[in-house]
Write a structure and sequence with these properties.
The protein is mostly helical. The protein is built from 5 helices and no strands. The protein is globular.
Length: about 80
C-alpha cells in the first residue's frame, strides 16, 4: 500500500471511521466490528491506491462502493 502523504492518510483514517459508523448503524453492529470488516474489503485497499484518489471521495460514495462489493456487483463497483 502506498499513501501519498500524511494528509492522504488523515483522509483515509477519517473516511474509515465515517464509513464504519454508517455501516454499523445500518447493520446493527459495533463500529469496531464495522472497521474490522471494512479493512478486509477491496474498496478499503483501493483507498491506498495513489492513482485512484478514492480518499478524496465522500464517505457515502465509498459506502456505496462497499455495498456493491458486498453484493458482488463488480460491474457497478468498477464504475465507481
Amino acid at each position: 500500500m502506498i499513501v501519498l502523504d500524511n494528509k492522504a492518510q488523515l483522509c483515509i483514517d477519517a473516511l474509515t471511521a465515517d464509513v464504519a459508523d454508517m455501516f454499523a448503524n445500518e447493520n446493527g453492529i459495533t463500529v469496531t466490528e464495522a472497521i474490522r470488516w471494512f479493512m478486509t474489503t477491496k474498496t478499503y485497499e483501493l483507498l491506498f491506491d495513489e492513482n485512484s484518489l478514492l480518499y478524496l471521495e465522500s464517505a457515502g460514495y465509498i459506502l456505496d462502493m462497499v455495498k456493491d462489493e458486498l453484493n458482488g456487483n463488480w460491474d457497478r463497483w468498477k464504475e465507481e
